[in-house]
Amino acid sequence: MVPHPKATVFATSPEETAKGALSVVADGRTAADISGIRAESVAALQYALLGQTYDPGGIDLSILTGHEQVYVYTKTHGGWLFRFPDDIVRLLAAVPDDNLGGVAERWSLIFEYDGPPLPEAGEVEGMLRQIITIAQTAVGRHLSMHWLQEGC
Q1: Whole-number average pLDDT of the chain
Q2: How far does the chain reach from its first CA to its final CA, in angstroms?
């Protein structure tokens, strides 16, 4: 099996990204292992962050156009490493506490299509808090923020 980072959302340097970010470990500040991270959930997060509606049963992935694929672990089975656009990282880093619940609620709709086990109400907000912390670290340390689409 091809090694992958030990996190699904993280902030790191371009040099580390070029090597596949294999030294990344979920530390809660620069990286987290968040279940359910895949193209559909990242698209839903972006729609929720922008206050836009989306169809969780048939989400339009064109919103991910600015997410650059920066690393492929294996061509046939993935995973695939994507870089969040800088403007989305800045928006995530700036989500105010009084808006966190609303963004989490809008984002949570996508997980209803994942099948069991579904995240519970408070879990999605906790997942979002982790992503916001990583975005704040990325902005503060001038790092890139990434998400991992796991392979099969």
Answers
A1: 92
A2: 10
